[in-house]
């Protein structure tokens, strides 16, 4: 059975109750607007109006549009990580390590496809979030160890995660005309060869 993993996105610092309410309202407003008009059309003005606060509040809270996008991603990443740590199998504990590893790949591929525009809009602000990659790499490394894989598990874990990144998925699916199913089949074959 896999060892429990800590959430690596980091807990937000303690904040006043009104600040927490504003933050939640802003993130909810941004998520609603994004669902309706897409990431490209999401503006700080629109988020402020939707949340019923001034534009300055949005900038003070998130610093920039990229900061807002990164906060949305942090929230979604924390939910995904919670599923890995304590959600139902096969992504969560309780399944065979190989089943968990394959579920990880399918889930991560889907998450990155769903959030590609948001990840790109967050730019360097999200790209500097080493904790996210660290969590995924640690999870894969632990599963590889459970499966008895030998070698440099840190490198192998990183090599298995790389094809699930947005730039690679965009190249394969958007430009290489592969389907998600083909990409997932290829990733599954790669995992089986490593294991």
Number of helices, where a helix is a run of at least 4 consecutive DSSP H or I residues: 9
| Secondary structure: number of strands | 0
CATH class of the largest domain: Mainly Alpha
Radius of gyration: 18 Å
Strand content: under 5%
* Low-confidence runs: none
Shape: elongated
Q: Helices and strands: which structural class?
A: mainly alpha
Note down, in words, how this protein is organized:
This protein is mainly α and 195 residues long. It has two domains: 10-63, Orthogonal Bundle (Arc Repressor Mutant, subunit A); 65-194, Tetracycline Repressor, domain 2 (Orthogonal Bundle). Helices cover 72% and strands 0% of the residues. It is built from nine helices and no strands. The protein has helices at residues 17-37, 44-51, 55-62, 65-86, 97-127, 130-146, 153-161, 166-175, 180-194. The longest helix has 31 residues, at 97-127. It starts with 16 loop residues before the first helix and ends with a helix. The relative contact order is 0.12.
């Amino acid at each position: 059975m896999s060892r429990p993993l800590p959430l690596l996105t980091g807990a937000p610092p303690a904040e006043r109750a009104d600040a927490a309410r504003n933050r939640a309202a802003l993130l909810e407003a941004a998520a609603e607007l994004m669902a309706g008009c897409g990431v490209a059309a999401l503006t700080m003005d629109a988020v402020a109006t939707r949340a019923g606060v001034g534009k300055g509040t949005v900038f003070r809270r998130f610093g920039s549009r990229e900061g807002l996008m990164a906060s949305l991603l942090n929230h979604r990443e924390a939910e995904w990580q919670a599923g890995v740590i304590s959600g139902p199998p096969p992504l969560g504990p309780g399944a065979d390590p190989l089943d968990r590893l394959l579920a990880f790949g399918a889930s991560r591929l889907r998450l990155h496809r769903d959030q590609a525009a948001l990840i790109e809009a967050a730019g360097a602000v999200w790209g500097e979030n080493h904790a996210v990659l660290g969590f995924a790499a640690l999870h894969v490394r632990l599963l590889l160890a459970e499966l008895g894989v030998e070698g440099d598990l840190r490198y192998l874990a990183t090599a298995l995660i790389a094809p699930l990144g947005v730039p690679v998925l965009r190249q394969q699916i958007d430009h290489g005309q592969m389907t998600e199913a083909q990409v997932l089949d290829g990733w599954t074959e790669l995992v089986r060869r490593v294991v």
